Amino acid sequence: MKKVGEPAPKDRLLRAAAALLAESNGEPVSTRQITEAARVTAPTLYHHFGDKEGLFDAVVAEGFSEYLDAERGLPTSGQPIEDLRMHWDNHVQFGLDHPHLYLVMFGNIRPERRPSMVASAEAFLEEVLARAAAAARLVVSPREAARSMLAANIGVTLMLIAEPAAKRNLELSAMTREAVISAVATDSEGDPTTDTEGTPSVVVAAIALNAALQSSHPDQLSSSELKLFLEWLQRISSRSGS
Amino acid sequence: MKKVGEPAPKDRLLRAAAALLAESNGEPVSTRQITEAARVTAPTLYHHFGDKEGLFDAVVAEGFSEYLDAERGLPTSGQPIEDLRMHWDNHVQFGLDHPHLYLVMFGNIRPERRPSMVASAEAFLEEVLARAAAAARLVVSPREAARSMLAANIGVTLMLIAEPAAKRNLELSAMTREAVISAVATDSEGDPTTDTEGTPSVVVAAIALNAALQSSHPDQLSSSELKLFLEWLQRISSRSGS
DNA sequence: TAGCACCTATAGCACCGTTATATGAACTGC
DNA sequence: GCAGTTCATATAACGGTGCTATAGGTGCTA
Fold first, then answer.
1. Which residues in chain A show pLDDT less than 70?
2. CATH number belonging to domain B56-184
3. A128, B82, B139, B147: which one has the fewest Cβ atoms less than 10 Å from its Cβ?
4. Over the stretch B211-241, which tens digit does the pLDDT of each residue have?
5. In angstroms, how far is C29 C1' from B10 CA?
6. Which residues 170-199 of chain A have a CB within 8 Å of chain B?
7. Predicted confidence (pLDDT) at residue B46 exceeds the cutoff of 60
8. pLDDT tens digits for B149-171?
9. What confidence tens digit (pLDDT) does each residue in B87-99 have?
10. Rounded distance, CA B159 to CA A118, Å?
11. Which residues pair with B200 in a beta bridge?
């Protein structure tokens, strides 16, 4: 019978640690800060988590389960390739939403002590890819495809986190995503801008056009028109809305 | 007039720090260990580097310059795409050779304090890609291509470092490398988004996007925006020469 | 009420990064 | 040659850190 307004010390420790880690910009957080914020003394921490590292591991584990829940919560569109895009974007978004947590989860992996949850993330992505494979859309094994996609996804997210939020260019994500997907999956019959149902992929075509416009500006559009045009193009190719 | 057998304390500190960081498997290394290994007392460290972090930054900076030297030392084969593969593989190899250093260099980047050397690495890769662009083998701008390639390269290397050396599968690297390269560059002839000169064809890409939009309307644009967008697209597609 | 887990607090240890102060060494101008 | 200056190193200590030996509640079962 707990009072509702007052979570147990263990929970308060977890929350305090998570909050302090998220605020304090990557600088180390002391156990004293945490225990004070949780209104608890030192031995309580060590009773519940054994270690400072144990507490942080618990925070990371919670982060992973939040991430995996979000991934599993995504709908299945019936178009496997489209699902891949969705999961990729969701991964990036999670990283941008929880940058410090993400750095510990995916950027800091020590060889031997690697969180097993990364393997879960990989396994889940593999499931999504297995659906693509079932639709005969994969040109490599789901396992290899999952590893490659996850690696690229992490690299892109780390790079986006590393640069100031203001000048973040999400097209890096869209572009790399399409690169990996098109290497791993086949766009049905031959046409690189068309997917299974024969419906042309707007995103792929938009990215191609955007790329082409980088090196050669059309003279049919005024510079102000071009500016707006490129903005829309960006919007289409990053599919952040939806 | 230095004795040859005895490097200056500053150098000894640097070497000791680098060695201890490399050995001690990612666990924190104390200033006392370092100063003891360098046969030096604490104030010497602070005189030369100001800070523990300053010392570690110096180690990282040395790592970066070693990396960049290796990159710049690679020969130019005359085949830009082949060069890209070589630089990619060299990056991965550097990460596997100095895993802990690599983690600090590329896996640990804090947004504000990001080492400027990462930008140098990016800039160098951009130079290599500029050569590919000059050979009319690029379908996106060198800058975007460099960012995408570097991001994927880092992601793959981190993933390889994270798994036990025994079961490392380098094919993950090769596969992802080819994915990114083929999305960024064209294998000489035959690419539908590339015209004879090898420069990306805005017209072809615009036509493809136009076609794609016929059957699937993006929800990122309002209907009035879409109308104008399609009109401009038409104008670009019907371009005569150039 | 007694016993028994469980959880929490007091007080302190050993270590850490860091520095105020002092000492030595090497070069300068005279 | 020697005072003055500057650079490089050492002694000793301070406050903060992760952690724990020990002891004190607290609620449960008997």
1. 1-6, 110-112, 136, 187-205, 207-208, 210-212, 214-216, 237-242
2. 1.10.357.10
3. B82
4. 667 656 677 788 888 888 888 877 775 554 4
5. 30
6. 171-172, 175-176, 178-180, 182-184, 192-193, 199
7. yes
8. 999 999 999 999 998 888 898 98
9. 999 999 999 999 9
10. 10
11. B194
Q: Gap from B47 CA to D6 C1', in Å?
A: 14
Distance CA A152, CA A179 (A): 10
Does A37 contact strand C, using a CB cutoff of 7 Å? no
Q: Are B179 and A179 in contact (CB under 8 A)?
A: yes
Second CATH level (architecture) for the domain B8-50: Orthogonal Bundle (1.10)
B117 touching A (Cβ < 8 Å): no
Buried-exposed string B122-155: b where 16+ CB fall within 10 A, e elsewhere: bebbbebbbbbbeebbbbbbbbbbbbbbbbbbbb
Question: Tokens at residue B173, please?
Answer: 């690297």
Q: Is the whole model's pTM more than 0.90, yes or no?
A: no
Average pLDDT, chain B: 83
Tens of pLDDT, residues A203-222: 666 766 766 676 667 777 88
Whole-number percent of chain B with pLDDT over 90: 49
Domain extents in chain B: 8-50, 56-184, 202-237
Cross-chain residue pair B152–A156, CB shorter than 8 Å: yes
Residue bearing tokens 């990001």: B114
pLDDT in tens, B163-217: 888 889 898 999 999 999 988 887 654 344 444 444 446 665 666 676 667 656 6
Q: Give the Å distances, CA to CA, from B50 to A122, A148, B11, B29.
A: 42, 42, 15, 17
The reply to whether residue B152 touches residue A176, judged by beta carbons under 8 angstroms, is yes
- Residue B214 is predicted with a pLDDT of 61
Q: What pLDDT is attached to residue A173?
A: 96
- Which CATH architecture best describes the domain A1-50? Orthogonal Bundle (1.10)
Instruction: Tell me the one-letter amino acid at B146.
Output: A
**No. of H helices and E strands in chain B?**
11, 0
Out of 2.30.29.30, 3.40.50.620, 3.30.2350.10, 1.10.357.10, the CATH code matching A51-238 is: 1.10.357.10
**Burial of A68 per CB tally in 10 Å (0-12, 13-18, 19+):** middle
